Amino acid sequence: MTRVKINPLTRAHGYLSVELEVEGGRVTDARSSGLLFRGFEQMLRGRAPHDAVYLTQRICGICSSAHAIAAAMALENAFNIEVPQNGHLLRNLIFGADILQNHLRHLYLLAIPDYIMPPEMGPAEARRRGDYRLPEVLDRRIREHYLEALETSGLAHKAVAVFGGKAPHLQSILAGGVTEHVLTDRVMRFQSLLSQIQAFITDKLVPDVESIARYYDDYFNIGAGYGNLLSFGLFPTGTDRNQRVFKAGVIQNGQTGTFFPRLITRETGASWYRGDEGPQPPDRGQSTPFPGRAGAYSWIKAPRYNGEPFEGGPLARMRLAGLYRGGISVMDRLLARAVEAKEIAGLMNGWVRQLVPDRPTISWVDPLPATGSGAGLTDSMRGTLAHWVSVREGRITDYHILTPSAWNLSPRDENGRRGPLEEALVGTPVADETNPLEAGRVVRSYDPCISCAVHVLEKTACAGSGAVPEKGERREKNKTPYN
How many other β-carbons are positioned within 10 Å of the β-carbon of residue 134? Predict the structure, then answer.
């Protein structure tokens, strides 16, 4: 048995370490460790409630709109604030554009480089050794699209800014709706950007991912994990925030079921915190950071649904919506993300036409009530996102966040069950233990975001320290890894 440590794993948002046990050419056990602590839940205590919408966006620049919407939903739930139809439509358009920029960046910048031959130049040249199968003409075409995807994701960020004010960390979403008005010039600007993005997704992104799937079809049998899928629902359809275009639900043992928020718990037994022993309701408890805690190996906590590990993301949403009928694997996650990008772009074309000028976009409640508590549950780019807020005497007294990568990349729970990513890594073939690219493909299929997943970076923990880095390249201590 050989231990292989990828630390840090590159082409992921934030500092992620993965440790593998390899025997007989396959992974027999795995641990994933989030190495970045943020502390946003502590920062929010004592702040004005409206601050939650703006501060939580700073958790992550790649999915800031998701946190804005979850925070706004939590406040609306706490104070019974209704959002007008135009407000829901504008939120869906802002959020949809942000999801598209994320899917473009994830697929082309982070995931697809695992399947195409790197150029013979710069730091990428060191990764040319490995399992690359695409014909040269197809390989070259996708590399060209890589650069075009950068430009197209930039267009998506511009689309976010049309009604969001700026991107990332937009300014227009508040409890009650969106502060921007429906103006003809903005609608036309948004439609122009969307048409360019949609054309790239339809003509290039989807065919590129389908081509990769044909040549790497063995990855339909790699990375399945538990097979448990979870969605909180995405894109409200109207004034009822609980009715979503992509409906909430669970898939377990191949069966589709109803989602019940009360069945969510979280654990910290394998995480660097003290307090909160055993499964806890996600909106209670005070976990104190405790780096070096015996038996712990991650800053990420362990969310569970009905006591079981679940993963979320495009695959869960597309399976529940009946828009993707494949299985649960590395390649299924990539294909479902491409399908979702095309589907969301089409939905956005409909939403922008439903906007009505001179109708309200926000229900102003100022000041907010002094006391209340509520939850904001939504799906986001890479899975399920939930914010819980408690307000007393006009100030936030408690705030809790469970992010998609907390679900997907969680450590073991009190029963020793691996997190979804850890379980998905078990059984992965590894042809070269000094170059475990197969494991990298499994990890990146989840679109991991450590910036979101844990809320003090220990320099020595992320600097290589003699570990075997991804793609076989060895570095000296404290050298910055390439992405």
Answer: 19
Lowest mean pLDDT of 115-124, 136-145, 310-319, 366-375, name the range.
Answer: 115-124
What pLDDT shows up at residue 274? 86
Q: Is 413 left (phi over 0), alpha (psi -120 to 50) or beta?
A: beta
Distance CA 124, CA 163 (A): 37
CA angle 138, 430, 16 (to 5 degrees): 85
**pLDDT tens column, 220-243:** 999 999 999 999 999 998 767 788
CB atoms within 10 A of CB 51: 15
pLDDT at 394: 96
Cβ contacts of 189 within 8 Å, gap of 6 or more: 162
The residue count for the chain = 483
Cis peptide bond prior to 8, omega within 30° of 0: yes
- Residue 117 CA to residue 353 CA, distance in Å, equals 42
Name all domains of the chain by residue range, CATH numbers in brackets. 2-472 (1.10.645.10)
Max distance between CA atoms of the chain, in angstroms, equals: 68
Q: What would the two tokens of residue 126 be? A: 């060191």
Q: Which one, of 332, 119, 275, 107, lies nearest residue 200 by Cα?
A: 107
Closest CA to 244 of 377, 350, 339, 361: 377
Distances (CA, A) of 182 to 87, 218, 229: 10, 48, 37
How many CB atoms are closer than 10 A to CB 473? 17
pLDDT the model gives residue 287? 73
